[in-house]
Design brief:
- The protein has about 450 residues and is of the alpha/beta class.
- The protein folds into 2 domains: about 130 residues, Cobalamin-binding domain (Rossmann fold, 3-Layer(aba) Sandwich); about 270 residues, Alpha-Beta Barrel (TIM Barrel), CATH 3.20.20.70.
- Helix content is about 35%, strand content about 15%.
- The protein has 16 helices and 14 strands.
- The strands form 3 sheets. A 6-stranded parallel β-sheet has the order 2-1-3-4-5-6. Strands 7-10-11-12-13-14 form a 6-stranded parallel β-sheet.
- α8 packs parallel to α9 and α12 runs parallel beside α14.
Length: about 450
């Protein structure tokens, strides 16, 4: 069969469409690596180039996140009108299977690694089922190296994304990871991780270990770090703030080539953290944690969610002051978005605070619910204030050009990222049109 993998594009001029740095979907390359060799694979990411509807595939496989679901459904229905079978998967389809089934010939709920070959066999036989659901969570020892040959040769900032684990042991209210992986946490055999590193076509470049929690099983992490020292790589990962309490782990991170850690601080208000279900986050330790990580030459990319119940208009200035004072290397600053399947979605829906279920607005840059201690326009304007403020030339110089930060080795990735975001954020702001919910 001729199989076409499709990534729907962000709306033109949206916050994410204008960002210069584009990243591939690891899930597609993973499925490509699991595809029997007699199939022919092609790939279309609308964020890089248009979908060729004249390519005549036998099967189209579309993965959708919530804000891209409307576009994904349009692509699916256009192929279906041509008589081409379409299977849809991903987080949104998994949480809204009945909705997705109305737009596709087949829907996959949850992980598809161990049933992908079955899906393809059924499609070949003309017996594609309307719904597939793997009976158990994927056994990580069965995942071969991803097949990145399906990616285009140009267009992505970098493609070296690898999973060393899946899932997260935490149960944050706003996070879709727990809903998708059921609170499981599964390490991948270190030998298989190393095999995938050796298969990368763009080494020695940066690697992003795309785990939701890189350190939840320290013994696995230490085994991997001891091996990574021999590869002389530069890499970034995601980890909770608790990493800063383990000085030996931090030292091992630095020795193994870590240049940056994505950390979910989430809020500067302890009451918000309590609602979120983030007991591991102690605000009194935030500043010290950043310093400890910086002292090891590692950059900190912090995530902060805005619009939680105890946020007021003061939160935006408070954040910018904190970010400049602690010299945060980068930040992800979304508006709270109640994605289907999450605890926060269920809570806000029960409280009658959801403003729309037009998924195209669920882009983490648009207010789609009624905040408790902020007006809708205050939260929307505050989002742009912090994004424009953080990614501004004065802020970049305050954070990255002090004596203590100018020589940090992580600047090789964070410097271009910061300066690249400056025009992108401003362009997104100029083209943004608020939906006008009341």
């Amino acid at each position: 069969m001729r199989i076409l993998f499709v990534i729907p594009g962000w709306p033109q001029k949206s916050f994410w469409d204008v960002l210069y740095f584009k990243f591939p979907h690891l899930s597609i390359a993973t499925l490509a690596g699991l595809t029997p060799p007699h199939h022919t694979l092609s790939f279309a990411d609308e964020n890089l180039q248009p979908v060729d509807f004249n390519s005549a595939p036998d099967l189209v496989a579309i993965t959708i996140m919530t804000p891209l679901a409307p576009r994904g459904y349009k692509i699916a229905n256009r192929f279906r009108k041509m008589g081409i079978k379409v299977v849809i998967g991903g987080i949104h389809a998994s949480n809204m299977p009945e909705e997705a089934m109305s737009q596709a010939d087949s829907v996959v709920i949850g992980e598809a690694d161990e049933i992908w070959a079955t899906i393809l066999h059924d499609a070949e036989q003309g017996k594609l089922k309307p719904l597939y659901h793997q009976s158990h969570y994927t056994r990580m020892e069965l995942i071969p190296p991803a097949d990145r040959s399906v990616y285009p040769k140009k267009g992505y900032f970098f493609e070296n994304m690898i999973q060393t684990t899946r899932g997260c042991p935490y149960h944050c209210e706003f996070c879709s990871v727990t809903a998708f992986f059921g609170g499981t946490y599964r390490p991948r055999p270190v030998e298989m991780i190393l095999k995938e590193i050796e298969s990368l076509r763009n080494t020695p470049g940066y690697i992003f270990f795309a785990d939701d929690n890189f350190i939840a099983k320290p013994e696995h992490t230490h085994r991997l770090l001891n091996k990574l020292k021999d590869y002389r790589l530069r890499w970034v990962c995601q980890a909770p703030i608790t990493i800063a309490r383990d000085k030996a782990m931090l030292k091992s991170f630095a020795g193994a080539g870590c240049h940056g850690i994505f950390i979910g601080f989430e809020s500067l208000n302890p009451k918000n953290l309590e609602i979120m279900g983030k007991p591991q986050n102690n605000i009194d330790f935030f500043e010290e944690s950043i310093k400890r990580i910086h002292d090891n030459g590692i950059g900190v990319y912090g995530s902060f969610v805005f619009g939680y119940d105890h946020d007021t208009v003061s939160v935006f200035d408070q954040f910018l002051e904190f970010a400049n004072r602690t010299m945060l290397d980068g930040a992800f600053m979304p508006i709270l978005t109640p994605f289907p399947g999450t605890k926060i979605y269920k809570r806000l829906k029960a409280e009658g605070r959801i403003l729309t279920e037009d998924w195209s607005y669920y882009d983490m840059a648009t207010v789609v619910y009624r905040p408790k201690n902020l007006k809708i326009d205050e939260l929307q304007e505050g989002f742009w204030k912090i994004n424009k403020g953080f990614y501004s030339i004065p802020s970049i110089f305050k954070r990255m050009f002090r004596i203590s930060s100018i020589k940090r080795r992580s600047n090789i990735i964070f410097m271009p990222m910061n300066f690249g975001h400056v025009p992108a954020v401003r362009k997104a702001y100029r083209t943004f049109t608020a939906p006008g919910f009341t």
